[in-house]
């Protein structure tokens, strides 16, 4: 039964669910987050992608008020994560790869504990997702598999009927079957209800399965952020086939074109990696001083985009 013991007002309508500006997080002399700025649109499924140690977890801990920032600011649903942390936590569900469940408790007991610690609690909603995952309703947590524990953490994170769901590496270590079930619920149910989902991961397959927006982070700095489809469209690989083997001066001139990131010879052709105004580059390629037989372009995969940014270390 739904428990509405404590009433709280919904957050005021805003275009952005999460706003981060110049965020800095230090651990001693090590800077984990270095001037990070990003915006997560309301209703988005935002994949926060980066290698291990990139600053993803530190960012999420700051959003939840678990870690005070050393610089900059962050807001969730318009509430400052430092000054109004209780308002943030009342409206945000959180789950991480770290098992924070009490192993000796049963599933019903952990639900009651979370209910008692929450401003509001919707047990009907929790029970619905427990049923969707097929979790044993009366089992002790220590008897659950790693995948089932991750699923239970998601159910509990949804118990307060949050407007925003923040997940830290939620599928890390899960087998393919458990990962697929988790992501299916995340995109098929949770996101479809209009909740904003902000999740960190180093798994490209998770991003491609559920995210509509993505940010890539390395060394605590945001390298790129935006709509995933737009990102694929603005990052393309061009292949130019010439009538004869192009001279070295042609290679150098292509290097000098705006938005061309990489130039590589391929027999009588040249391959370009382009980021930016793709149409302008394509027009320029069809007006080369050396005879061109064909120009072809393909969108870069998310893996190609990720590797290009992480290896090059480009900022936005």
UniProtKB/TrEMBL annotation:
SMART domains: AAA
Keyword tags: ATP-binding, Nucleotide-binding, Transport
Protein name (Swiss-Prot/TrEMBL): ABC transporter domain-containing protein
Organism field: uncultured Rubrobacteraceae bacterium
Family (UniProt): Belongs to the ABC transporter superfamily.
PROSITE patterns in UniProt: ABC_TRANSPORTER_2 (PS50893)
Transmembrane domains' residue ranges: none
Pfam families, per the entry: ABC_tran (PF00005)
GO molecular function, a single term: ATP binding
SUPFAM superfamilies reported for this sequence: P-loop containing nucleoside triphosphate hydrolases
InterPro entries given in the database record: AAA+_ATPase, ABC_transporter-like_ATP-bd, P-loop_NTPase
Domain ABC transporter: from-to ranges: 18-244
């Amino acid at each position: 039964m739904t428990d509405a013991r404590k009433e709280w007002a919904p957050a005021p309508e805003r275009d952005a669910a999460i706003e981060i500006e110049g965020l800095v997080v230090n651990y001693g002399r090590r800077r984990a987050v270095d001037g990070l700025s990003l915006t997560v649109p309301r209703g988005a499924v935002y994949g926060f992608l980066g290698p291990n140690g990139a600053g993803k977890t530190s960012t999420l801990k700051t959003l939840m008020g678990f870690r005070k920032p050393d610089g900059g600011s962050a807001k969730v649903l318009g509430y400052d994560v430092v000054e109004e942390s209780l308002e943030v936590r009342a409206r945000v569900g959180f789950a991480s790869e770290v098992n924070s469940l009490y192993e000796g408790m049963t599933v019903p007991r952990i639900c009651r504990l979370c209910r008692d610690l929450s401003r509001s609690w919707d047990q009907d909603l929790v029970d619905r997702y427990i049923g969707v995952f097929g979790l044993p309703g009366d089992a002790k947590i220590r008897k659950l598999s790693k995948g089932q524990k991750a699923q239970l953490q998601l159910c509990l994170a949804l118990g307060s009927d949050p407007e925003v769901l923040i997940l830290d590496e939620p599928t890390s270590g899960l087998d393919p079957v458990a990962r697929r079930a988790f992501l299916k619920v995340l995109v098929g149910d949770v996101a479809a209800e209009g909740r904003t989902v902000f999740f960190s991961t180093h798994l490209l397959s998770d991003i491609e399965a559920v995210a509509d927006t993505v940010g890539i982070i390395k060394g605590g700095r945001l390298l790129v952020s935006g709509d995933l489809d737009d990102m694929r469209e603005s990052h393309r690989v061009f292949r130019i086939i010439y009538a004869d083997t192009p001279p070295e001066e042609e290679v150098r001139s292509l290097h000098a074109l705006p938005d061309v990131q990489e130039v590589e010879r391929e027999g009588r052709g040249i391959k370009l990696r382009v980021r930016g105004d793709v149409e302008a580059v394509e027009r320029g390629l069809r007006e080369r001083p050396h005879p061109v037989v064909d120009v072809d372009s393909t969108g870069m995969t998310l893996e190609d985009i990720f590797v290009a940014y992480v290896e090059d270390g480009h900022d936005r």
